[in-house]
Amino acid sequence: QSVLTQPPSASGTPGQRVTISCSGSSSNIGTNYVSWYQQVPGTAPKVLIYKNNQRPSGVLDRFSGSKSGTSASLAISGLRSEDEADYYCAAWDDSLNGRVFGGGTKLTVL
Amino acid sequence: EVQLVESGGGLVQPGGSLKLSCVASGFTFSASSIHWVRQASGKGLEWVGRIRTEPNSYATTYGVSVKGRFTISRDDSKNTAYLHMTTLKVEDTAVYYCRAGSPNPFVDHWGQGTLVTVSS
């Protein structure tokens, strides 16, 4: 089991808005920043969101992040077929003194 | 162009050792912490460990599943980080990624990964 909890799957149709949740605890999300990654199978993860809600240059504003208490979420608006991928949340965990990941959410664009 | 290139993966028997390398270019390597992250086939991402920068005494920390068996080091003069793996187990089989991270300025770069297979 992963320290951060994500739904294993999510889906939406083109143009829709989809939200992926990430639940943690006071030692990780409750205290530290959350990052979100997109991984197309067979390739390396790519950062979409850092410091809870910041987008690196080059990441489209269709991707947004938020955090409240010990939970975080990633929202993808204007869903496109190329958004079909696995999405992971991550945060530092002060109790484990290490970085922890969510189990990943497979997004399907119907 | 930012690049992180891992190498050194391959087939090793259980109980054996292997040393992975991660060569960086296109950014200030010495200012970034270096993490190793692995992914077993069809599974999620698992954090392996991290080495910090010189101002932070090159401090290392490891995940529970590899602590005592894996060692991370770096040579800033060569823009290279290493993951030395010993007493390898079948469950260590995975693609191993190196990641460079820094909060300010923000850095989050990943290599393409190298496959380690532990099997007899």
Care to describe what's here?
The complex is a heterodimer of chains A (110) and B (120). Chain A has strands at 9-12, 18-23, 34-39, 46-49, 63-68, 71-76, 85-93, 98-101, 105-109. By secondary structure, chain A is mainly beta. In chain A, the strands form 2 sheets. In chain A, strands 1, 3, 4, 7, 8 and 9 form a 6-stranded mixed beta sheet that branches. Chain A has a 3-stranded antiparallel beta sheet with strand order 2-6-5, with no helix packed on it. Chain B is an all-beta fold and 120 residues long. Helices cover 0% and strands 52% of the residues of chain B. In chain B, strands 2, 4, 5, 6, 9, 10 and 11 form a 7-stranded mixed beta sheet that branches. In chain B, strands 1-3-8-7 form a 4-stranded antiparallel beta sheet, with no helix packed on it. Chain B is globular and about 45 Å long. The mean pLDDT of chain B is 97. The interface between A and B is medium-sized, with 26 and 20 residues.
